[in-house]
Design brief:
The chain contains 15 helices and two strands. It is mostly helical. It has a single domain, classed as Ammonium transporter fold (Orthogonal Bundle). Strands 1-2 form a two-stranded antiparallel sheet. A hairpin with a 3-residue loop joins strand 1 and strand 2. The two termini are 37 Å apart. The mean pLDDT is 93. This is Ammonium transporter.
């Protein structure tokens, strides 16, 4: 009887699955046809006349290499985060970073790049003149005069991609997959793109005020860090979360591998932001490495003092915090200043993580706010202290070099970015709440690897 009754049910489920699959297949094929036809309305990659002699092949090679380095950082975040979570959620975390890589890559081509770097509208957002990359071709742009506009576009795409990937650390092990897809698309469009335009876009209001952010301390890290804090508050704690208890990391070597790849990729992140194979790129490369080393040693020393053992994970996390902090300053400060930034950021982020885990009842699971939010805040403010016009003539001197006004400009940029990102992310998640922000209790207990993706990270 059991077999006889179960068979029709199983058949109906199979038919239903096949019907859904066929419908999705037809919809995707139809979408492909529509997009293919729409391509006739957009200029090709070689849009516009250009002088080949204006293109510097060395600069172009360096920026494309840097774009590849920054791209590697997104799956590196997956390994870094994936090693920290429980073994039943490692696949889901790495999968989420690859999902974000795919979503934002397409969003950036259709809309994101134009909203950030298109013709300015009131200092707030870019226009749609570059939508679909119309007019973005082989000719250089005002942003990078020695490389093809396309090269600058794809380099900037990698920054837009990694920003939402950083946020997922705040709600690992409990986010609903379909809601994450919508959230990433909406957050990139409504939060990242406006902030990036304010700071980097020609005509952006923070750019016009003289705010310094060489490679994304405010645009990427502060925005992601405070979005992570808002996300942790709205989505809520893990069901098994215990205040003050450290994470039961499933794979410390994954964490170390992720940190090493992030350190490696960060040379493209910062030195690539010189947009040329130039002395400024060399300077940014050197201070990036130095600050990371100083922060890694700071975290190691603090963990040694707190736990009587020099933690490998703490050392790796400290390096990442140092990389975050040097990012806004990397094109404006010298090597000695980068050591000070690394130590300062190491102390601030370690203390913030300690306070959050011990006394604040918010489950920012992988401490995105402490590491990226407060690391970015520290670096952006210290840029206003240590910046030297002698290092970068396009920048400004900081407080220690005779320009106290720069420090106040940096503080303003920090306050605006953190407030906007936190508030918009909070509201966005509240709007998405009816879709379901988190998985069921049963799925959370089972782990997202099996419950959501049907794939195990380990088969022991």
């Amino acid at each position: 009887m059991i077999t006889t009754e179960a068979t029709p049910i199983a058949v109906k489920k199979a038919v239903s699955r096949n019907r859904i699959f066929i419908i999705q297949l037809v919809v995707l094929l139809g979408l492909g046809v529509i997009v293919g036809y729409a391509s006739t309305f957009f200029a090709g990659a070689s849009a516009g006349a250009f002088n080949s002699k204006a293109i510097n092949t060395g600069d172009t090679a360096w920026v494309l290499t840097s774009a590849a380095l920054v791209m590697v950082m997104t799956p590196a975040v997956g390994f870094f985060y994936g090693g920290m979570v429980t073994s039943k959620n490692v696949v889901s975390v790495i999968k989420q970073t690859l999902l974000i890589l795919a979503i934002v890559s397409v969003q950036w081509v259709f809309l994101g790049y134009s909203l950030v770097f298109g013709n300015d509208i009131g200092g707030v957002i870019g226009g749609l003149n570059y939508a679909g990359l119309r007019g973005v071709g082989y000719a250089p742009s005002v942003y990078a005069p020695t490389i093809p506009h396309l090269a600058f576009m794809i380099f900037q795409a990698m920054f837009a991609i990694i920003a939402p990937a950083l946020i997922i650390g705040s709600f690992v092990e409990r986010i609903r997959f379909r809601t994450l897809v919508i959230f990433v698309l909406a957050w990139s469009t409504l939060v990242y793109d406006p902030i990036a335009h304010w700071v980097w876009g020609t005509g952006g209001w923070l750019h016009n005020l003289g705010a310094l952010d060489f490679a994304g301390g405010t645009v990427v890290h502060i925005s992601a860090g405070f979005a992570g804090l808002a996300s942790a508050i709205v989505i809520g704690k893990r069901r098994n979360m215990q205040q003050g208890e450290p994470l039961a990391s499933n794979n410390v070597p994954f964490v170390l591998l992720g940190a090493g790849l992030l350190w490696f990729g960060w040379f493209g992140f910062n030195a690539g932001s010189a947009l040329a194979a130039s002395p400024l790129a060399v300077s940014a490369f050197v201070v990036t490495n130095t600050a990371a080393a100083a922060a890694a040693l700071t975290w190691m020393a603090l963990s040694w003092a707190e736990h009587k053992k020099p933690s490998a994970m703490a050392t790796a996390t400290g390096a990442v915090c140092g990389l975050v902090a040097i990012t806004p300053a990397s094109g404006f400060v010298g090597p000695v200043a980068s050591i000070a930034i690394g130590i300062g950021a190491g102390v601030v982020t370690y203390v913030m993580l300690f306070i959050r885990s011990k006394w604040i009842r918010i489950d920012d699971t992988l401490d995105v706010w402490a590491a990226h939010g407060m690391g970015g805040v520290t670096g952006a403010i210290l840029t206003g202290l240590f910046a030297e016009k002698a290092i970068n003539s396009a920048g400004s001197n900081g407080l220690l070099f005779g320009n106290p006004g720069q420090l106040w400009t940096q503080i303003l940029a920090v306050l605006v970015t953190m407030t906007y990102s936190f508030v918009l992310t909070f509201l966005l998640l509240k709007i998405l709440a009816p879709l379901g922000l988190r998985v069921s209790a049963a799925d959370e207990e089972k782990g997202l690897d099996i419950a959501v993706h049907g794939e195990e990270g380990y088969r022991l």
